[in-house]
Amino acid sequence: GNQNMSTSLFSTLLLSVCLIATSIGDEQCQFPRKSILIKQAPPRSTSYSRENFAIEESCISASQLQGDEVLLKALYISVDPYLGNVFRQFPPGYSASSLQISQVMATKSANFNVGDIVTVALHDLDRYDAVVTAHSEWSTYFIRSADSLFRLARSGNDIPIEYYLSTMGVTGATAYYGLIDIGKIRKGENVLVSGAAGATGSVVGQIAKNVYGAYVVGTAGSDEKVKWLKDLGFDHA
């Protein structure tokens, strides 16, 4: 029930660059790495294009690991509208970054095994059974300290791992805390959700409707989005 708000440009970049590890011509390179750098962010009123980014090729290997470090492969990278403004704050040549889910390819930590699916933890939210992520660079492979990682509990459920970047991650946590901890919703109340077709708003409306039996009204910016909200179960949009 979470709408993908990514632009086709960013989606193309992730599919063709970040998630595909290709050879860079060095047969001794254990993990050929491609990274996306911010070449020059456009003015605020201008959309991003390929010319705003640069691709950097390098090599990374397990022999570079020190201490309790872990070498990770990017599996899913979250591309969100707010990143447009975030990237404008970075100097030219800075690595693009956002929330992501990765797989352990090599490790010097006793707490993680090769093949583990992890995310970079921002907070410990175990009591809410939520996974919260932090920014990692847009690279096919990268190295992180083990104490910054959170292993996704995959046993016993069939939840797609990419959901931990949305409904089971920051998006779901924001919707949950905003509606329940701050909004103090009670069963049967009327709930108005602004920006309801967005990632968080759509989850808020579904929790209010399906868990609390609320009468839910959502606002959105197009007829297409309004129709989608009604398909989600909003009473009115």
Structure explained in plain terms:
This protein is an alpha+beta fold. 22% of the residues lie in helices and 26% in strands. The protein contains five helices and eleven strands. It has helices spanning 8-18, 83-87, 170-182, 199-210, 223-232; strands at 31-38, 53-60, 69-77, 94-95, 97-107, 117-120, 135-137, 141-145, 149-151, 190-193, 215-218. The strands form three sheets. Strands 3, 5, 6, 7, 8 and 9 form a six-stranded antiparallel beta sheet that branches. Strands 2-1-4 form a three-stranded antiparallel beta sheet, covered by helices on one side. Strands 10-11 form a two-stranded parallel ribbon. Helix 3 packs across helix 4. The two termini are 16 Å apart. 34% of the residues are buried. Residues 1-12, 14-26 and 122-133 have low confidence and may be disordered.
